[in-house]
């Protein structure tokens, strides 16, 4: 059986990841299919394999390949068991060739890219299930899933296992939102908040499509969710949230991944968002709002930001916000 669009087996990824690439590329270019296709093994044995290969194929018109080159692509991995997220440039800067000058000729092309996810994302080499996607501005690839498995013959120290599991819990890694005195974040529904999804998932919206960079300007990015939540450490009557006259009943990890049109590399905002509604089941609902202009890394210069939200197996986006020069406005 095969998992992905390339028709490769786990053994192929380990020994010959380009086995089907010629036929795949020929059809992709002939049919002029635009976008990024990715594939990876369904399972990797930790004791015998030291890499986690991800094969990506980026195809588009020559004009678009110049406008949005693969060296701006970001790979995102989410560990499903604990909700942790890792994001990084899919290829380091030194792997990209020099930019071509002048207008590209009419035509259509594609290029393959082989990425070691263990190195690129700095993965903790331990058992777990990872959901992976590649983002390039407003485009996203197909999703793939890989399971990291321990060698059955490997020694297991239960105390080490317990310690590592605690370190990977999402409420260990994420800060509650908002922190006291943080003007860039708000909790609860606000005017313009997106509706809560009817099924588990996320909704993400930007309040404004174009925002001038001038004193007093704001750029709210709003998220609503219906997600599996954690009630770990929350008293039966709920937990008071600092700065708010409300009681949290549960928490959900939500990660914002922001890609700049000019700035290489992602900006990642990890949020630990409370759910205020009483719920007996495994799901909770909640809202958060982030002012993008309140974050120095985003407001430093005019450019367009492509915003995505992740939590476990769910993602939303992109919500697109452009920051423009505010002089004279």
- For the record, give the distance between the C-alpha atoms at the N and C termini, rounded to a whole number: 59 Å
Helix and strand element order? HHEEEHEEEHEEEHHEEEEEEEEEEE
Low-confidence sequence ranges:
171-181
Share of helix, binned: 10-25%
Give the class from helix and strand content and strand pairing.
mainly beta
Counted beta strands:
20
How many structural domains are formed by the residues?
2
CATH architecture of the largest domain: Sandwich
Sheet bearing the most strands, described? 6 strands, mixed
Radius of gyration: 21 Å
Q: Strand percentage, roughly? A: 35-45%
Supply the number of helical segments. Answer: 6
CATH class of the largest domain: Mainly Beta
Q: State the CATH topology of the largest domain.
A: Immunoglobulin-like
Q: How does the overall form come out from the CA principal axes?
A: globular
Can you describe what's shown?
- The chain has 329 residues and is mainly beta.
- Helices cover 12% and strands 40% of the residues.
- The chain contains 6 helices and 20 strands.
- It has helices at residues 10-15, 21-30, 62-67, 117-121, 158-167, 170-173, and strands spanning 35-39, 43-45, 53-61, 74-79, 85-89, 108-116, 128-136, 139-140, 144-149, 185-187, 201-206, 210-213, 220-228, 239-240, 247-248, 250-260, 266-275, 283-291, 303-311, 314-325.
- The strands form 5 sheets. Strands 2, 4, 5, 7, 8 and 9 form a 6-stranded mixed sheet that branches. It has a 5-stranded mixed sheet with strand order 12-20-19-16-17.
- A hairpin with a 6-residue loop joins strand 14 (239-240) and strand 15 (247-248).
- The termini are far apart.
- The relative contact order is 0.15.
């Amino acid at each position: 059986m095969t998992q992905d669009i390339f028709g490769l087996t786990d053994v192929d990824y380990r020994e010959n990841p380009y086995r089907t690439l010629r036929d795949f590329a020929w059809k992709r270019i002939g049919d002029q299919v635009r976008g990024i296709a990715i594939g990876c093994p369904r399972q990797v044995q930790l004791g015998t394999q030291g890499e986690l290969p991800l094969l990506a194929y980026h195809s588009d018109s020559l004009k678009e390949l110049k406008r949005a080159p693969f060296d701006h692509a970001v790979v995102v991995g989410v560990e499903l068991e604990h909700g942790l997220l890792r994001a990084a440039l899919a290829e380091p800067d030194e792997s990209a060739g020099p930019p071509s000058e002048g207008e590209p000729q009419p035509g259509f092309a594609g290029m393959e890219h082989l990425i070691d996810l263990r190195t690129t994302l700095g993965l903790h080499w331990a058992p777990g299930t990872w959901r992976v996607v590649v983002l390039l501005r407003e485009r996203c690839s197909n999703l793939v899933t890989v399971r990291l498995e321990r060698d059955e013959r490997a020694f297991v120290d239960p105390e080490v296992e317990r310690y590592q599991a605690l370190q990977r819990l999402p409420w260990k890694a994420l800060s509650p939102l908002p922190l006291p005195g943080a003007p860039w974040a708000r909790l609860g529904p606000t005017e313009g908040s997106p509706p809560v999804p009817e099924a588990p998932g996320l909704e993400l919206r930007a309040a404004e499509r174009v925002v001038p960079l001038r004193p007093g300007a704001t750029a709210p990015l709003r998220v609503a969710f219906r997600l599996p939540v954690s009630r770990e450490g929350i008293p039966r009557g709920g937990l008071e949230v600092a700065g708010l006259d409300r009681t949290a009943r549960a928490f959900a990890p939500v990660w914002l991944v922001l890609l700049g049109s000019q700035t290489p590399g992602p900006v990642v905002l990890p949020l630990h968002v409370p759910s205020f509604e009483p719920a007996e089941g495994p799901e909770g609902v909640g809202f958060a709002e982030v002012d993008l202009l309140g974050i120095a890394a985003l407001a430093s210069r005019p450019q367009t930001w492509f915003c995505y939200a992740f939590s476990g197996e769910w993602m939303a986006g992109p919500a697109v916000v452009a920051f423009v020069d505010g002089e004279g406005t």
